[in-house]
Amino acid sequence: MLYNLLAPLSEYFQPFNLFRYLTFRSGGAVFTALILSFLIGPGIIRWLKAKQREGQPIRSDGPESHLISKKGTPTMGGVMILISVTVSTLLWADLTNLYVWVVLLVTLGFGAVGFADDYLKLTRRNSRGLPGRIKLLAQGGVALLATLAVQWITPPTLASHLALPFFKGVFIDLGWFYYGFALLVMLGASNAVNLTDGLDGLAIVPIMIVSASFALIAYLVGNEVFANYLQLHYVPKSGELAVFCAALVGAGMGFLWFNAPPAMVFMGDTGSLAFGGALGIISVIAKHEIVLAITGGLFVLEAMSVMIQVFYFKRTGRRVFRMAPIHHHFEKLGWQEPTVVIRFWIIACIFALIGLSTLKLR
After folding, report:
1. How far apart are CA 210 and CA 20, in angstroms?
2. Separation of alpha carbons 280 and 103, rounded Å
3. I want to staple 75 with a disulfide (CB 3.0 to 4.6 A). Which of 80, 196, 266, 278 is the partner?
């Protein structure tokens, strides 16, 4: 909004020219989202505590310590991040850019699904929430609308194509199969982040790391000069998504202030489904879907651990891990929660560095 209002006035007041720069607006989005999180966080937490007397239902089959340490902690803290990201993006992004609206659609749509899931968990006082099929159908509906919109906005030479990292000039046209692939990316990312959100601070820091990575990726592929220099495919107007990614980093830092161990509030499905889906649609727009799987490697590991556990248990009646997702396996081995969280953050940083290396290693 500030860009649309103030940038045209730069010829009358030169400092307004700053709003033309994507880097300046991305920096503004970080600080706006961070400050807004600090301002609204305490009030939202008090409201959630008042509405959730007993806090988030804790899995009875989970680590025994959680039944004590996490009892009474409210969930749905993702609302705080959603508000901060949305307001900051609307304030600093170019509102004529359709990609921005598509990303907000996915973020708020998936967030609504997560909110319904959290609400049912609280009212029913169990950890199940929405039936899996209904949740996937709702997510799939939002993802399909977003995919159709992206296909309409993106130039035909890019719309249904898949880029392979580490290879320059390799661009595979998936045709109609791209719709299914894009849905898989969004749903997979959303639910993988959701599975990761099981310990204080565990999910939000990797979300920030991947968001920062894609802020850079979106900026580069949206800039024709940099894209040509790095031999990346140029996606016109996708650079504006750097503002959204920056806002997510700022809101994530603000949320971590309240989510750091011992957490005052949990993100809940409201946040994890929303921001996993957001990262998914950003990777689809930037044509870096495979790079998302690399930079978000921690989320992939968490999801794979659940899939392996379920598959092996159904086949043999035995478990590969003491508990899935895999962060609980290490808790069962005796690792303290902060140890698991910090080591997983380190792993997330390593995956992000590998993913970013694909921008140059071709």
Report:
1. 25
2. 9
3. 266
Amino acid at 354: I
Burial of 306 (0-12, 13-18, 19+ CB in 10 A): middle
CA distance 118 to 196: 16
pLDDT in tens, 19-32: 999 999 999 999 99
CA–CA distances in Å: residue 39 to residues 19, 274, 275: 25, 21, 21
Q: How far apart are the first and last CA of the chain?
A: 38
CA-based nearest residue to 339, from 352, 327, 351 = 327
Residue written as token pair 């990292």: 165
pLDDT in tens, 334-361: 999 999 999 999 999 999 999 999 998 8
C-alpha closest to that of 265 among 273, 275, 257: 257
Encode pLDDT of 280-309 as tens digits.
999 999 999 999 999 999 999 999 999 999
Cα–Cα dist 204/273, whole Å: 12
Two structure tokens written together for 344? 């997983």
Residue type, 74: P
What element of type H or E holds 351? helix 337-357
Dig out the tokens for 203 from the structure: 């999910």
List pLDDT tens digits, range 309-338. 999 999 998 999 999 899 999 998 999 999
Nearest residue to 161 via CA among 172, 152, 147: 172
Contact by Cβ (8 Å): 296, 279: yes
Show the tokens assigned to 266: 């949990």
pTM, full prediction? 0.93
- The three-class DSSP label of residue 173 is strand
Of the candidates 80, 204, 190, the one whose C-alpha atom is nearest the C-alpha of residue 138 is 190
- Does residue 72 come out as left (phi exceeding 0), alpha (psi in the -120 to 50 range) or beta? left
